[in-house]
Write a structure and sequence with these properties.
Mean pLDDT: 82
Number of domains: 1
Helix content: 40-55%
CATH topology: Nucleotidyltransferase, domain 5
CATH class: Alpha Beta
Low-confidence stretches: 111-115, 120-131
Distance between the termini: 15 Å
Order of helices and strands: EEEHEHEHHH
Length: 156
């Protein structure tokens, strides 16, 4: 099954692709939020391009595991996107995924400037070696998706 991972923020949505058979998540791109309809069209393009069967959306929980206002906002948004692209959605705990994305980028030693998103460009800040929020959003989406796929694999 092909999956699309989403890291939903107030301004951007990180997008990652994964195939449940090979269990590898890859950062794809970032959608700048405009409106629910515009966002759904942009995400729908990825759904069609990658022939996706399910959405995996990061759920921002509080550190004690409870859902706060941000989680409720993400659920509402993701359910709208899910209906618009006609795909089921699974919510996955995303606590600390941005920090994990930063750690993985640093550990890879791959200077972040070598990372290119699907859109074919890295931000100017990234080319200068600064941490790019855009790139981290896509990597965070891949972390969410990879964690989900790993958990599914351990259940088999």
């Amino acid at each position: 099954m092909k999956l699309l991972g989403l890291d939903v923020g107030d301004r951007r949505v990180g997008v990652a692709f994964g195939d449940a058979e090979v269990r590898i998540a890859t950062p794809v791109d970032v959608v700048t939020r405009v409106s629910d309809d515009e966002d759904a069209r942009a995400i729908g393009k990825f759904v069609r391009e990658y022939d996706v069967a399910q959405l995996i959306v990061g759920l921002p929980r509080n550190m004690d595991g409870t859902d706060g206002a941000q989680a409720a906002s993400v659920v509402t948004y993701a359910e709208k996107i899910s209906r618009a692209v006609n795909l089921p959605v699974i919510f996955w705990d995303e606590r600390l995924t941005t920090m994990e994305a930063m750690r993985r980028t640093q550990e890879a030693g791959a200077p972040a400037q070598t990372l290119r998103l699907r859109s074919g460009h890295a931000s100017r800040g990234l080319r200068r070696g600064k941490k790019s929020r855009r790139t981290l959003d896509a990597i965070a989406a891949a972390v969410i998706l990879q964690d989900y796929m790993d958990a599914q694999g351990s259940r088999e």
